[in-house]
TrEMBL record:
Record-annotated Transcription regulator PadR N-terminal domain positions: 25-101
UniProt xrefs under InterPro entries: Metal_resp_DNA-bind_regulator, Tscrpt_reg_PadR_N, WH-like_DNA-bd_sf, WH_DNA-bd_sf
Protein name per its UniProtKB record: Putative transcriptional regulator
Top-level taxon in the UniProt lineage: Bacteria
Pfam (any one): PadR
Organism: Rubidibacter lacunae KORDI 51-2
Length: 119
């Protein structure tokens, strides 16, 4: 107990721990199905240019999130002649990814509302 606060350490299931960069990707995919460049664009536009995601670091982040079951991906059907027929790989958040986002959003709200107990 610290300053009148008790912590309940019982948890049914631990939410996934994510790095700040992974958190941004999950937020961009929350309710969206996007390909890599769109994810980077979403972050840049939503932050009015303050956050930029280099493509070279985006794909390892996506791979790690997918490996942990937080997102899933698939190849699009469209062929892009301007890129020699290359297809886009699309990403979407999974139920586990949604639960992780919901958990850290809930934590943030609780932290904003938290006030010390009177002593």
């Amino acid at each position: 107990m610290v300053r009148g606060v008790t912590l309940d350490t019982r948890q049914v299931e631990q939410p996934a721990k994510v790095a700040p960069r992974e958190e941004l990707v999950l937020l961009a995919l929350y309710g969206n199905e996007l390909y890599g460049l769109e994810i980077a664009q979403a972050m840049e536009e939503a932050s009015t240019g303050r956050k930029q995601f280099k493509i070279g670091s985006l794909y390892p982040t996506l791979h790690g999130l997918e490996k942990r079951g937080l997102i899933e991906s698939w190849w699009g059907d469209e062929e892009r002649p301007e890129l020699g027929g290359a297809r886009r790989r699309y990403y979407r958040i999974t139920g586990k990814g949604r639960a992780t986002v919901d958990d850290f959003q809930h934590f943030r709200q609780e932290l904003i509302r938290w006030r010390p107990s009177p002593t």
